[in-house]
Amino acid sequence: MRLILNRPVIIALVLIIIWLYAGRPVTSLLDHLITMRVASLPVTPIKYDGGGLLIDQFEMTFGATDNLRSKLVLCSDSLNQVILSSGKQSFTLGPRTNPVDPSGRLEIDFVPTPGDELSFTSSRSVFGWPTPFEFNFMMRSPWWKRYVYYRLVWKKPDGAKLEMLWRYEQQYYSINGWTQPEMMWNWYTGLIRVDIRP
Protein backbone atom coordinates (compact mmCIF):
# COMPACT_ATOMS: atom_id res chain seq x y z
CA MET A 1 0.00 0.00 0.00
CA ARG A 2 2.81 2.39 0.91
CA LEU A 3 4.54 1.64 -2.43
CA ILE A 4 1.34 2.51 -4.35
CA LEU A 5 1.00 5.81 -2.46
CA ASN A 6 4.63 6.72 -3.12
CA ARG A 7 4.54 5.85 -6.84
CA PRO A 8 3.31 9.36 -7.91
CA VAL A 9 6.00 10.95 -5.75
CA ILE A 10 8.70 8.71 -7.23
CA ILE A 11 7.51 9.43 -10.77
CA ALA A 12 7.49 13.19 -10.06
CA LEU A 13 11.04 13.03 -8.66
CA VAL A 14 12.28 11.06 -11.67
CA LEU A 15 10.71 13.60 -14.05
CA ILE A 16 12.27 16.50 -12.15
CA ILE A 17 15.71 14.85 -12.29
CA ILE A 18 15.33 14.21 -16.04
CA TRP A 19 14.29 17.83 -16.60
CA LEU A 20 17.27 19.13 -14.60
CA TYR A 21 19.83 17.02 -16.45
CA ALA A 22 18.26 16.63 -19.91
CA GLY A 23 16.01 19.69 -20.25
CA ARG A 24 17.70 21.03 -23.38
CA PRO A 25 17.40 17.86 -25.51
CA VAL A 26 13.88 17.19 -24.21
CA THR A 27 12.86 20.76 -25.12
CA SER A 28 14.41 20.37 -28.57
CA LEU A 29 12.51 17.13 -29.10
CA LEU A 30 9.22 18.71 -28.01
CA ASP A 31 9.87 21.67 -30.31
CA HIS A 32 9.73 19.29 -33.29
CA LEU A 33 6.12 18.62 -32.32
CA ILE A 34 4.84 22.01 -31.16
CA THR A 35 6.00 25.59 -30.55
CA MET A 36 4.13 28.72 -29.51
CA ARG A 37 3.78 31.36 -32.22
CA VAL A 38 4.92 34.72 -30.89
CA ALA A 39 4.62 37.27 -33.70
CA SER A 40 4.56 38.14 -37.38
CA LEU A 41 7.57 40.37 -37.95
CA PRO A 42 8.38 43.04 -40.57
CA VAL A 43 10.05 41.66 -43.70
CA THR A 44 11.56 44.92 -44.92
CA PRO A 45 14.01 46.47 -45.12
CA ILE A 46 16.15 43.47 -45.95
CA LYS A 47 19.85 43.31 -46.76
CA TYR A 48 22.86 41.01 -46.75
CA ASP A 49 25.60 42.18 -44.38
CA GLY A 50 28.28 39.64 -45.31
CA GLY A 51 27.44 37.25 -42.48
CA GLY A 52 23.72 36.77 -43.00
CA LEU A 53 20.47 38.60 -43.59
CA LEU A 54 19.46 41.71 -41.72
CA ILE A 55 15.66 41.68 -41.76
CA ASP A 56 14.34 44.91 -40.25
CA GLN A 57 16.46 44.94 -37.04
CA PHE A 58 16.85 41.15 -36.77
CA GLU A 59 20.33 39.75 -37.52
CA MET A 60 19.77 36.33 -39.08
CA THR A 61 23.19 34.70 -39.35
CA PHE A 62 24.26 32.14 -41.93
CA GLY A 63 26.10 30.33 -39.10
CA ALA A 64 24.82 26.79 -38.56
CA THR A 65 24.53 24.71 -35.40
CA ASP A 66 28.00 23.23 -36.07
CA ASN A 67 29.39 26.76 -35.53
CA LEU A 68 30.44 26.94 -39.19
CA ARG A 69 28.97 29.08 -41.93
CA SER A 70 26.23 27.34 -43.90
CA LYS A 71 27.10 26.62 -47.51
CA LEU A 72 25.06 29.53 -48.80
CA VAL A 73 26.16 32.03 -51.43
CA LEU A 74 24.44 35.36 -51.91
CA CYS A 75 25.48 37.54 -54.86
CA SER A 76 24.12 39.78 -57.59
CA ASP A 77 24.20 38.82 -61.26
CA SER A 78 24.73 40.85 -64.45
CA LEU A 79 21.03 41.80 -64.46
CA ASN A 80 21.40 43.30 -60.96
CA GLN A 81 19.30 40.50 -59.44
CA VAL A 82 20.29 39.18 -55.99
CA ILE A 83 20.47 35.39 -55.94
CA LEU A 84 20.73 33.03 -52.95
CA SER A 85 22.30 29.64 -53.74
CA SER A 86 22.36 26.51 -51.60
CA GLY A 87 24.10 23.57 -53.25
CA LYS A 88 22.66 23.18 -56.75
CA GLN A 89 19.49 25.13 -55.91
CA SER A 90 19.16 28.89 -56.32
CA PHE A 91 16.48 31.46 -55.60
CA THR A 92 16.18 34.98 -57.00
CA LEU A 93 15.44 37.38 -54.16
CA GLY A 94 15.00 40.62 -56.08
CA PRO A 95 16.77 43.66 -57.56
CA ARG A 96 19.84 45.07 -55.89
CA THR A 97 19.39 48.66 -54.66
CA ASN A 98 22.97 49.62 -53.83
CA PRO A 99 26.01 49.67 -56.13
CA VAL A 100 28.82 47.14 -55.85
CA ASP A 101 31.38 48.44 -53.38
CA PRO A 102 34.73 48.90 -55.19
CA SER A 103 36.58 48.17 -51.94
CA GLY A 104 35.07 44.66 -51.90
CA ARG A 105 32.63 45.02 -49.00
CA LEU A 106 29.97 42.33 -49.28
CA GLU A 107 26.95 44.36 -48.16
CA ILE A 108 24.03 44.00 -50.57
CA ASP A 109 20.79 45.95 -50.24
CA PHE A 110 17.84 44.59 -52.21
CA VAL A 111 14.06 44.59 -52.38
CA PRO A 112 11.68 41.72 -53.14
CA THR A 113 10.54 41.37 -56.74
CA PRO A 114 7.06 42.88 -57.18
CA GLY A 115 4.46 40.14 -56.72
CA ASP A 116 6.53 38.13 -54.24
CA GLU A 117 4.91 37.05 -50.95
CA LEU A 118 7.08 37.16 -47.83
CA SER A 119 6.45 36.24 -44.24
CA PHE A 120 8.82 36.40 -41.28
CA THR A 121 7.53 34.91 -38.04
CA SER A 122 8.83 33.98 -34.62
CA SER A 123 7.81 31.17 -32.30
CA ARG A 124 9.26 29.82 -29.08
CA SER A 125 9.53 26.64 -27.09
CA VAL A 126 6.46 25.73 -25.07
CA PHE A 127 8.77 24.72 -22.21
CA GLY A 128 12.12 26.09 -21.17
CA TRP A 129 14.70 24.22 -19.16
CA PRO A 130 16.23 25.12 -15.78
CA THR A 131 19.97 25.81 -15.50
CA PRO A 132 20.77 25.27 -11.80
CA PHE A 133 24.21 23.81 -12.51
CA GLU A 134 25.50 26.62 -14.75
CA PHE A 135 28.02 28.83 -13.03
CA ASN A 136 29.69 31.90 -14.44
CA PHE A 137 32.11 33.73 -12.17
CA MET A 138 32.32 36.76 -14.46
CA MET A 139 28.58 37.52 -14.45
CA ARG A 140 25.29 36.09 -13.24
CA SER A 141 24.06 32.82 -14.68
CA PRO A 142 20.55 32.53 -16.13
CA TRP A 143 17.87 30.60 -14.24
CA TRP A 144 16.12 29.28 -17.34
CA LYS A 145 16.67 29.02 -21.08
CA ARG A 146 14.41 28.40 -24.06
CA TYR A 147 14.59 28.40 -27.85
CA VAL A 148 13.13 31.01 -30.18
CA TYR A 149 12.61 30.10 -33.84
CA TYR A 150 12.55 32.52 -36.77
CA ARG A 151 11.03 31.41 -40.07
CA LEU A 152 11.37 33.29 -43.37
CA VAL A 153 9.08 32.12 -46.18
CA TRP A 154 9.49 33.72 -49.61
CA LYS A 155 7.14 32.74 -52.43
CA LYS A 156 7.28 33.67 -56.11
CA PRO A 157 4.19 33.99 -58.34
CA ASP A 158 5.46 31.03 -60.43
CA GLY A 159 5.44 28.75 -57.36
CA ALA A 160 9.15 28.89 -56.46
CA LYS A 161 9.66 29.00 -52.70
CA LEU A 162 12.45 29.70 -50.22
CA GLU A 163 12.11 28.71 -46.58
CA MET A 164 14.75 29.42 -43.94
CA LEU A 165 14.55 28.45 -40.26
CA TRP A 166 16.78 29.69 -37.46
CA ARG A 167 16.94 28.56 -33.82
CA TYR A 168 18.20 31.15 -31.32
CA GLU A 169 18.37 31.03 -27.51
CA GLN A 170 16.71 33.17 -24.85
CA GLN A 171 17.88 33.33 -21.23
CA TYR A 172 15.89 34.20 -18.13
CA TYR A 173 17.30 36.26 -15.26
CA SER A 174 15.37 36.94 -12.06
CA ILE A 175 15.87 40.71 -12.24
CA ASN A 176 15.48 41.48 -15.96
CA GLY A 177 13.33 38.58 -17.17
CA TRP A 178 13.87 37.08 -20.65
CA THR A 179 16.72 38.42 -22.77
CA GLN A 180 16.58 39.07 -26.51
CA PRO A 181 17.05 35.83 -28.50
CA GLU A 182 20.64 35.42 -29.66
CA MET A 183 22.88 33.23 -31.74
CA MET A 184 25.04 31.70 -29.01
CA TRP A 185 27.66 29.75 -31.05
CA ASN A 186 27.08 26.87 -28.63
CA TRP A 187 26.39 23.98 -31.06
CA TYR A 188 22.63 24.38 -30.55
CA THR A 189 21.72 27.69 -32.19
CA GLY A 190 21.91 29.01 -35.73
CA LEU A 191 20.46 28.41 -39.17
CA ILE A 192 18.95 24.92 -39.03
CA ARG A 193 17.19 24.61 -42.39
CA VAL A 194 17.24 26.09 -45.89
CA ASP A 195 14.70 24.72 -48.37
CA ILE A 196 14.55 25.96 -51.97
CA ARG A 197 11.83 24.58 -54.21
CA PRO A 198 11.71 25.41 -57.93
Question: What does the model show?
Answer:
The structure is a single chain. It is built from 1 helix and 14 strands, in the order αββββββββββββββ. With 198 residues, it is of the alpha+beta class. The N and C termini lie far apart (64 Å). It is elongated and about 70 Å long. It has one helix spanning 2-31, and strands spanning 35-41, 46-48, 52-55, 58-61, 72-76, 81-86, 89-95, 108-110, 117-125, 129-130, 144-155, 161-173, 177-178, 190-197. The strands form 3 sheets. Strands 1, 9, 10, 11, 12, 13 and 14 form a 7-stranded antiparallel sheet that branches. The protein has a 4-stranded antiparallel sheet with strand order 4-3-2-8, with no helix packed on it.
Summarize this structure as a short list of keywords or feature phrases.
elongated; 43% strand; 198 residues; alpha+beta; 1 helix; four-stranded antiparallel β-sheet; 14 strands; seven-stranded antiparallel β-sheet
What structural category arises from helix and sheet content? alpha+beta
Radius of gyration: 21 Å
As a percent range, the share of strand residues is 35-45%
Number of helices: 1
Q: How does the overall form come out from the CA principal axes? A: elongated
How many β strands by DSSP? 14
Order of helices and strands: HEEEEEEEEEEEEEE
Give the proportion of residues in helices: 10-25%
Mean pLDDT: 89
The end-to-end distance, rounded to whole angstroms, is 64 Å
How would a textbook summarize the main sheet? 7 strands, antiparallel
Detail the poorly predicted runs: none
